[in-house]
Amino acid sequence: MNVRSTIMDTNSFRAEHAADLSQALRDLTHKREQVLGGAYRLFYRRPVHLVKGQGQYLWDAEGKKYLDVYNNVASLGHCHPAVIDAVHQQMGQLNTHTRYLHEGILDYTESLLATLPPEINRAMYMCTGSEANDLAIRVAQSWSGGTGIIVTQEAYHGTSALTSGVSPALGSGQPLSPTTRVVPAPDAYRIGHEHLGAWFADQIQQQIDDMAAHGIRFAGLIADSLFSSDGVLPGPRGFLKPAIDLIHQQGGVFIADEVQPGFARTGEHFWGFERHGVLPDIVTTGKPMGNGFPVSGLIAREEVLATFSDHLPYFNTFGGNPVAMAAAQAVLDVIQQEGLQAHSAQMGQRLLTELKGLQQRYLSIGDVRGAGLFIGLELVQDPATKAPDQQLALDVIEALRERGVLTSVAGPHGNVLKLRPPLAFQEQDIDWLVGALDQSLQVLGAR
Description:
Layout: H1 6-9, H2 23-35, E1 50-54, E2 57-60, E3 65-68, H3 81-91, H4 103-113, E4 120-126, H5 129-144, E5 148-152, H6 161-164, E6 180-183, H7 188-191, H8 196-213, E7 218-223, H9 241-249, E8 253-257, E9 282-285, E10 296-301, H10 302-309, H11 322-337, H12 340-359, E11 365-370, E12 375-382, E13 387-388, H13 390-402, E14 405-406, E15 408-410, E16 416-419, H14 427-443
Parallel strand pairs: 3-14, 5-6, 5-7, 7-8, 8-9
Antiparallel strand pairs: 1-2, 2-3, 4-10, 9-10, 11-12, 12-13, 12-16, 15-16
Helix pairs in contact: 3-11, 4-11, 5-10, 8-9, 12-14
């Protein structure tokens, strides 16, 4: 575990970068320092001052246009008119909590459940992915009677006290819960594809055994099926099944954190877990659910959720409010009406092909992997040893920023470019991204 947070500190502005900023940017960063808490971070050595967004594009205060290749919050695209209209109309009618009857939450839940396996048939709503994962862990512990949660090496599942305790990516400054156990990420680039499923299941069994040795009862595994924070590790389809079968045999639950791989992102299926042919006990989601409007959800098998909900009332003042449900319904409608799952598959495959072509020209590109519009490009010092090249990755990120392309890095070594654009991404954007990446690698003298 790193002292610094891999997801917060790797690609971030620091005080020593201020001397290279324009006066306007220096003034803004100074003002942030004076009025906001010190836990916040900015992207880039030269932060971007954004003022406008539309689709997959962003503009800064000086009018420069950027291609967003990182944002799954505005998953449909920035400022999508259908979401804006839905929120505006509902805000003009009513916004209140869920202790009054309203059709919006019921209609949306029926639409949402229709995208999931029939066994997953109950939903609850919150405002953030952290809240959804927090509740999911509580439900898992209630169902299993245990407290032990297993996560991967660089997992990130939220910012509450409970979810921070299962988020190694926050760094050693944020201690893990004593009942949390960590397994290595299923890195097919280094481990290989053939036995990845059995290997991963064995890693989980070892930690279940360790829990038992310390008097901790196993409750479950929480993971996103693309292992995004671990460096975007989709692995071969189906490799997760042995691990999930083991978890169920051991009396635990599988919490599928779909904040990043869900809502048509992979192109293969609507939900990321579906590519593995497994049935989660609990599914959580957040960011892409409302295209930037704060809404999140927990969807579960009735019998699993009942062990919690039949004994404890749950109330979230803003969770499931009519405006949030209107935003979420608009997102779901647009994905289905505009065929964005198929679009994600098509654009993702073309982008993957173009990046693999670029890989043939640069030894520094060790691996290109992904599913749909979620791709990891790993930069290495030597393709034979596969030694990570964090410095090159960070320099590439900055060079891309200068060429109007915004993205960031992932993985324990911060050497994987995390390419996750809004679903509005088009063919001309692939040309922009790949061209900018090619130029950046050339300028930096990449091998």
